[in-house]
Amino acid sequence: MAGFTERASARIAERLEPLMGGARDAASDPPVKSARTTVVIGRLLGIAFLTCFATGLYSHLLQDPLPWLPMPARPVELYRVTQGLHVISGTAAVPLLLAKLWTVYPRLFEWPPVRSVAHALERASIAVLVGVSLVEVTIGLLNLVQWYVFPFSFRTTHFALAWVLIGALAVHLGVKLPVIVRVWRRRPDDPPDAAGRTLTRRGFVGAVGAAAASAVLLTAGQTVPALAPFNALAPRRMGVGPQGLPINRTAAQAGVTDTAVAPDWVLTVATPSGSRDFTLDDLHALPQAEAVLPIACVEGWSQSATWRGVRMVDLLAAAGAAGPTAPLRIESLQERGAFARTEMPPQYATDPLTLVALELNGGTLHVDHGYPARVIAPGRPGVMQTKWLRRIEVTA
Questions:
Q1: How crowded is the C-beta side of 211, counted as CA atoms within 13 Å?
Q2: Which spans are transmembrane here (predicted)?
Q3: Beta strands in the chain (DSSP E)
Q4: Contact 37, 99 (CB under 8 A)
Q5: Which residues contact 74 (CB under 8 A, 6 or more apart)?
């Protein structure tokens, strides 16, 4: 049996030699596909992945808060910054990931594929890391343009894969740490190019850096005001939309075109001691406040706007529930959707900048922005700023 296995392995290796020979040669060609190039690109990619993971974790905690972990409502631009970093670093990761794979792909097809148990574990971790990375950045890009061609929940899957990716990255770094340390300690001078080669390692790294910077420059203007003039590729643009503010979901898409403008609309505020219905005129009769707050969406776009309406604390006081100490349950006229019903922790509900907004940028709310009334609060994801309000409940 051992002789048969050896002969079979030799036969397979002989058949694959023409296919693998080019890969082996490429793997040994200095300097572009050297270990140093791989480590340099890997550093940048690791920074991008870790930034994505940290900011994505923060976004997840805002959307699914832990009862024992209060999230900050200030500064008001906090989520705008963290989610902007999340999408910017994720965008930069695309060319970095492709470059990283290009520098190592010959070694992905080494023969024999497994030489020992330790080598098998290393190869398995690499397979997981490569596969998860490709899926993670792909569905992330699709989410930016809201093109959900996959049959699963983006948010749940994206979050779960992030943990798998970071775990596989940790294993990979642990296995490759000796190589990384050795390369870092070596002098950074480029070795002479191989005959016929015109691309140096520094040239390759520079080209990859330019590609990542260009991807960021042409998309980050959807959240960074200074880069707005260069925003050529992002799906949202600052100042473009009803009342000068972009939108993700229209009233028609939410199925509230008729109910939002119905003359009998009321906002019900329920408290442990009872409930009260507020008409639009009732809301306008309450003390009005104004706040400049950003809409910051998980897709990475954001823009500040001027909102006017009733402070949440004033509305709750008018309903007999001043200073809530438990989360609010907020319902939209929208019947379907993951965020048709949301919860607002008390630190947001009691913040004086949190409004039940009735006006936007000096005019009555456009129906696509949540007419007749919507929530706007500091430091919250756009999906949590519920539009087309129907009911606010103070939990016991």
A1: 15
A2: 40-61, 81-105, 126-149, 161-184, 204-228
A3: 267-271, 274-278, 289-296, 302-311, 328-332, 341-344, 355-360, 363-364, 374-376, 389-394
A4: no
A5: 351, 378, 379
Find out whether 267 and 277 touch, Cβ atoms under 8 Å: yes
Residue with tokens 């949301």: 342
Rounded to an integer, what distance in angstroms lies between the CA atom of residue 71 and that of residue 93?
Answer: 28
- All structural domains of the chain with their residue ranges: 2-230, 251-394
pLDDT tier for residue 200 given thresholds of 50, 70 and 90: confident
Instruction: Return the closest-CA partner of residue 295 out of 344, 341, 236.
Output: 236
pLDDT at 334: 95
Give the span between the Cα atoms of 23 and 139, in whole angstroms: 29
- Non-local CB neighbours of 194 within 8 Å, separated by 6+ positions: 29, 30
From 195, 356, 131, 359, select the one nearest 266 (Cα to Cα): 356
Q: What is the pLDDT of residues 311-364, one digit of tens each?
A: 999 999 999 887 788 899 999 999 888 889 999 999 999 999 999 999 999 999
The secondary structure of residue 231, as a DSSP letter, is -
First to last CA, the chain: 72
CATH class of 251-394: alpha beta
- pTM score, two decimals? 0.86
3-state class of 266 per DSSP?
coil
At residue 191 the predicted structure's pLDDT band, cuts being 50, 70 and 90, is: low
Kindly state the DSSP code that residue 23 receives in the 8-state scheme. Answer: H
**16/43 Cα distance (integer angstroms):** 33
Tell me, what's the pLDDT at 54? Answer: 97
- Quote the tokens at residue 168: 């596989």
Over range 365-372, report the average pLDDT.
Answer: 97
Nearest partner of 148 among 336, 250, 299, judged by Cα = 299
* Encoded amino acid at 235, one letter: P
Tell me the CA distances in angstroms from 336 to 58, 270, 288, one per residue in order. Answer: 25, 22, 31
Whether the per-residue pLDDT at 12 is higher than 50: the answer is no
